[in-house]
Amino acid sequence: MDQFTSIAEQRAWSRGQRRAGKRVGFVPTMGALHEGHLSLIRQARASTDVVCASIFVNPTQFDRPEDFAKYPITLDQDLAMLRDAGCDAVFLPTKEDLYPEGFSTFVEMVGPLTDKMCAATRPGHFRGVTTIVAKLFHIVEPDVAVFGQKDLQQALIIGRMVRELDFGLEIQIGPTVREKDGLAMSSRNRRLSVVERRIALALPRGLELANRLFKSGTRESIKLIEVLGTEVLQEEGTALDYAEIVDLRDFGEVETATDSSVLAAAMFVGEVRLIDHIKLGGAAMPVTIDE
Ligand code: AMP
Predict the structure, then answer these.
(1) pTM value?
(2) 176 lines ligand 1 (CB under 6 A)
(3) To pair with 154 at 20 to 30 A between CA atoms, which of 115, 131, 144, 205?
(4) Domain match, 23 and 129 both
(5) Is residue 79 located within the same domain as residue 196?
(6) Which pLDDT tens digit goes with each residue over 4-53?
(7) Which residues 6+ apart lie within 8 Å of 12 measured at CB?
(8) How far is the CA of 102 from the centre of ligand 1 (A)?
(9) 151 C-alpha to ligand 1 centroid (Å)
(10) 187 CB under 6 A from ligand 1?
(11) Would you place residue 289 in the very low, low, confident or very high pLDDT band (cuts 50, 70, 90)?
């Protein structure tokens, strides 16, 4: 597996691959890799000839400095996992190269996708995401980039950015990979103590309970959200950051849920913020793939 830290070297590799007639797949990550990330690598590999991953903990997308400071870093293990998953190249840029002093150009989306849910409670977060992803796309020049459905709002924002700014690449979304007990895999799960790890299960459990209520005929969003809220808040040391039911097609808030509605939520367990969602009427969790 090739490893590059310089922008020029990474770009030269990608251009070389494309000149040789190969389609380049790309999976951007912030490291502390798990099976969810690897599933995206495999998905990219299935529709391209060579796959590049990037590992960069992007400072501009953190709204809380302490969250950035505590973001887990497991580089040696990450590189071994990428190698085993058949990744061809990994881009490990430095903060100084990506954000040189005086950096002043940002990519910012406006409108319903970026004014609710994770955007409402994390000011500047998606501006940081769209900026870093646009930069990485310009450096790696992929044919296909794969993002996780786990971060649904992010995946939809990036898909829209690519369309509206004519990036000319294909965005694919890979399903959320879960632990056997239903918790969505996340790099942040490593920060949970044993007790917190158990408490975190209230999130997928609450989503599943709301989904069951929906399947049994309840359509009022407020009632479905209440079930989730009650489940999460009955655990000690939790706080609900948001819980919303939105339409998957336009991300508009819905008062009466339908088969195209998504219940999405973010909760704090102690200091750790976890997100998850479920498509109402969809399959029961846990959803696992590639097993
Ligand atoms: P991150 O390293 O958290 O920035 O995530 C990098 C990519 O992996 C993003 O596209 C995430 O949506 C995706 N991802 C994170 N967790 C999972 C998961 N449990 N299943 C599938 N994809 C995931």
Answers:
(1) 0.96
(2) yes
(3) 205
(4) yes
(5) no
(6) 999 999 999 999 999 999 999 999 999 999 999 999 999 999 999 999 99
(7) none
(8) 30
(9) 7
(10) yes
(11) very low
